[in-house]
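Entry 14. Structure prediction run on the chain below.
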Amino acid sequence: MTEPTHARGASEQPPADQAPPERAPVEHVLDEYQPMSALALDDVARWPTLDTAGARVLTAVTSDPSAPTWVHRTGDRLTSDDLAALRGAPRRHAAAPGPDAGAPPAWVDALVARAHEQVPRYRRRAREGRSSGTTPLTALPTLDRDDLRGGVADLVPLDVALDRVLEGTSSGSTGAALRIPLHPVTVAADLLLLHRLMGDAGVAWHAEPDRLGLVNLVDQRAAFTYASAMTAFPRPDEVAAPVMARVNLDDAAWNAPGDRERFLAAWDPQVVSTSPLPLVRLVELVRAGLVLHPLALVSGAAHLTPAVRALVGETWDVPLLDLYGLRETGPVAARWDDGPHVVLPRRVWVEVLDADGVPCPDGVRGEIAVTTDENPYLPLLRYRTGDHGSLRRRADGTVEVHGLEGRAPVRYQHADGSWRPSVDATQVLQGHGLAAWELHQDAAGAVHLTALPASPGTPAGLTAARQAGQALERLLGRPVGLDVLADSARFGGLKPRRFSSALDPLSRDAPT
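Output returned:
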């Protein structure tokens, strides 16, 4: 799953080997930096096109007495040329069906050819005679998360300038985080896509200087929080750019009790972008007295269950967009109800593959693979997502993903009855160097960890796994059963299902 993001120069979460503080000092800001330099960017470099009116709004948000503890400062980096290109980009529509409705569109063949000319991984294949620029897509090997983790530079085209690279991270579904190169225009294009989707759903999303245009909510013990101006947001020239903020709902992310509610109520975000578990937490805050008036909500990054959708529907009578994608691929498909996801009108080609990488016929379930070049720094050919579903191609070119089974939102119950989101466990397990894991809580509350260390079968790996289990015991206040793997065969070459719970009523594993 994915969530609408904003450009930033550092990862979303604190480094895995760094214990997050209970609360960062108010004055502590992780400014963006230049590689091999201690100089931070100034605000002109962060927002090259931000005018005086927009800067005033941004300052009002960041200096609000009730604001959260900002631990990052970042901008969209968009130039006037970028904004002109974004405004001039044609609106895309579903591809017209060809003689073979299952055949990739022409841009896919062009991408295969370009990859063999410019992408190191495929240039090497061409030199070795294993494939060429005319090889059909389905004859190429698939990619997966290990390929990116092992050397993302092998997939960056040689002919793209690297002077504008931003960095994003993805905790994904295998455990170890990825660092993804992003382009400012790519990130801004995701915002424009979201704005168009809102318009298509009848949501009148216009810039209002006294409201946050967008809030991205998380709920975890430590996270990067920041505010930024959205200079690419469609608006008349005389209207100031709206502000977005990334906000952590966790109590420790705020300077004083009640600040969270005061800040959110005062800036009343127009669109709330989050994932299912923070969305549930937001509903709890509203039921406790917080008043918000969202135009729409967006859920990504995890599987949106019908139970969570119903909970939101009882709270706000506004559209809820379920947006599917990954940090690696960008947005892929979306839906406004519990029906099938519809593949978005972008340069995104979706296949459903069996275990051997062979495309499944329409209607047959398999693993979703994505081909895309929306991100110039990371064109992907047949990237296996670890998520599953089946395809249906309509006569008008629309492609639907049915029965999408993505990463589910999971909470674990502490011994004191409170809940801990799985992202907290992610930070703990990544911090102890695990390459992959499965963590399950049964209906009686017992917790079991299956761990694959980064150095499996070694004393160091065994020690790391044991320490990870002990850290989970401290996190959850419960004993943790531990199964340490000597190799990845336990997962059958597939991505492990990292988190599951038979206790959490919002999880698909819980009894109904």
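The radius of gyration is 22 Å.
Filed with the rest of this week's runs.
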